[in-house]
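REQUEST ID: PR-0412
SUBMITTED BY: lab tech R.K.
PRIORITY: routine
TASK: structure prediction, single protein chain
INPUT:
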Amino acid sequence: MSLQERFTAVGEIRNIFDVLFSFSDMANAELEQQCEALSSALSHGGQADVDGKQLTQELTNVQDLPTTSRTLMEVLDFCTKRDCKRSIQTCGWHSE
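STATUS: complete
OUTPUT:
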């Protein structure tokens, strides 16, 4: 593989994963499109490793995270208002 081919491959990989680094600067439509592209790139045989719609929601929630220290109740209130219940359950931070 030539040096040019390697740089081209690295550029293609960067384009696919760039959503994870620049999501806070993207409009919602672009974010959805990029997350779906990442989901498609990380799929094999019809099975996706990443759900594009769920990733869009997660990254949308991350954009609005409080930037100052918060109490536990303030964080839980934030999560409730942003409908982060699914994320909390995924992390195992819920009670049955």
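NOTES: Confidence is low (pLDDT under 50) at residues 88-96.
REVIEWED BY: pending
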